[in-house]
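P.,

For your records, the input lines for the assembly:
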Amino acid sequence: MIKEIQGGVCAPKGFKASGVHCGIRKNKAKKDFALIVSEVNASAAGVFTQNLVKGAPVILCKEHLKSGYAQAIVCNSGNANTCNKNGIEIAEKMCQMVERVSKIKANDVLVASTGVIGQPLNIAPMEEHIDQLYSLLGDDSKSAAEAIMTTDTIAKSVAVKFTLGGRECKIGAIAKGVGMVCPNMATNLIFITSDVAISPKMLQKALSNDVKSSFNMVSVDGDQSTNDTCVILCNGLAQNKIIEEVNADYKAFAKALNYCTVKLSKMIAKDGEGATKLIECNVFGAKSVKMARGVAKTVIKSSLFKAAMFGADANWGRVLCAIGYSGEEVEVERVDVSFKSKAGVLEVCKDGYGIEFSEEHAKKVLSEDEVQVNINLKIGKCKASAWGCDLTYDYVKINGDYRT
Amino acid sequence: MIKEIQGGVCAPKGFKASGVHCGIRKNKAKKDFALIVSEVNASAAGVFTQNLVKGAPVILCKEHLKSGYAQAIVCNSGNANTCNKNGIEIAEKMCQMVERVSKIKANDVLVASTGVIGQPLNIAPMEEHIDQLYSLLGDDSKSAAEAIMTTDTIAKSVAVKFTLGGRECKIGAIAKGVGMVCPNMATNLIFITSDVAISPKMLQKALSNDVKSSFNMVSVDGDQSTNDTCVILCNGLAQNKIIEEVNADYKAFAKALNYCTVKLSKMIAKDGEGATKLIECNVFGAKSVKMARGVAKTVIKSSLFKAAMFGADANWGRVLCAIGYSGEEVEVERVDVSFKSKAGVLEVCKDGYGIEFSEEHAKKVLSEDEVQVNINLKIGKCKASAWGCDLTYDYVKINGDYRT
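Structure tokens returned:
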């Protein structure tokens, strides 16, 4: 049984975190420098952006993961350290300063940066605040979650407990979105901690598999970031029998992990830049999971559909249109479409054709802050879900002048 | 030599057009029913949406093109006649009513509809106004162009003259955009007329080839319409030697055609829903035309880049980011990026890294109503251009409640 608990990345045994304002961001009220540390070296795994343009921290982080182990995560917001000539050098210095204060070897430190691309990242503010950041390490997942935010309006955090062979185990995570989020290894930064004992190989397998149904199914704007990073540290302090193969414990761990990642996925979608509502697209009756995911992602990405959701307009033609250009071999004349929210269900399309509905009821259903669009392809048994948000004036406002 | 002239689709010999308000649209000031007729049967060709969900008129229009000949184009706006159970029947009736008034055989009539998807199209307003529409046929390209508009703010039209073997030849065209425009057989409706003599086979070849560098390179929102239709009628009244193979005349015709289609492409992009400016993305130094087109289309589609252009923000990191997820095998550390407008040139990225620039100069360059983003990949000799627009508050407003 999976039970939600408090504590974020500090919920699992042996993890501490902190976050401070060091000065990369101009606004002194906004933290911009975060650290997560495990008491002992941990199994580590990661998934990263597939963008050819990769941030320097992504390149270094992948390098540091090659050993399969790591013990700390350091991160700044306000600058992505991407497309800068000295980017790798700066990312290395970030790891080295963690070594200096903590004695954790620099290549056991994972590193991430988020913010504007193509402006030199000044190392000085971090040099000046690394001692403070280290000294503040404690049960402060919240400060770390705040320090990795960019245009996020709320800090995103989750933690769960569950048992493996009678041992209580925990997983905690923090994440930031919320623009440049595309359904293909998405969502900028996600840091996950756990006290489960698992081999690096099985951990990488679990994470790589997990993102397919969680972070890879989130879209805010269809743009794929250069810095997307999802890393996980598992330090084994729960003292469960170490997971070294696909067995019942592996599956239980994967299930708990997916609980956390899906919850964060929804939080990221709901807090999408300028969003007023969470849109969940559920596709049923597909011939394959690939087909279900393809359709769900295409619908959730459609600018026209997203704008209609902002206007609470039941323009289901745009849903069908997006299904049609998804590249998946659906049979249009079988497709059913309906909307659902707390206010009720609204059937709009049956066997590919429109059916009459009350505009008044439609407005009610679509005016809720969480809306499902449910699509039944009726040609198979596979399903998938994707999460996104509406396209609003504020998305345009936020992104019309983000840099200056 | 290609020279622009007046007259739109009525510029070529033997073509007449008309447009009226028949009542499909509620607003009586908006025309919604258009007709284009050639004096004699004409070689005909078309390219259509690749969306699996196809409007009934698209299905019927393709059927009527199978003979390679046609003599009229009938079109309504205000309703796309798509995802309706009786859609084909209604589209057939539209062709039959043209036969009734004109004696042109119904299967020589091309048909198109544009507007909302999934609401039954009432044939009665058209039945009541077909006599009037036919009686008004004349040099009235403008009324036809107006009658096919949906959210377009201006009627789009172009015409040119040129010579083939000493004979004066003409091409004319009208088009409508301006939402649901994706770089993959785009742009809803384009009707082209010409008095050139050319075989149906060569005409289809010319048109299919043309759209790759014109309408397929336009993006407003990345959504691909169910009703995209581009058809051309060539009635041969210019009495040039009929084009039946790829020769000098074919190339001269193709060049004149491309002049018209690129001009319309830019007009459609500039009038994109809510747009305040035309963005032209030119990619140079690609290894293949495919690579150049792939990069240009990805950049022009990026919501984040489009929002930055609205804010006149030289956020070139978003350009590099989009290049990186284009799926094309560029070498990031070679890429140069600059912006250009009437106000001057702004170099922002050299060999994949940022270079310093004046923010004041940047604002000036990006505040013009036509802005180029020029990308040199520096790994080959191929190039391509794509056209789009900025993402604005008004795009969201227009699409937040289009249907009701």
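Two observations worth noting. The mean pLDDT of chain B is 92. The radius of gyration of chain B is 21 Å.

Regards
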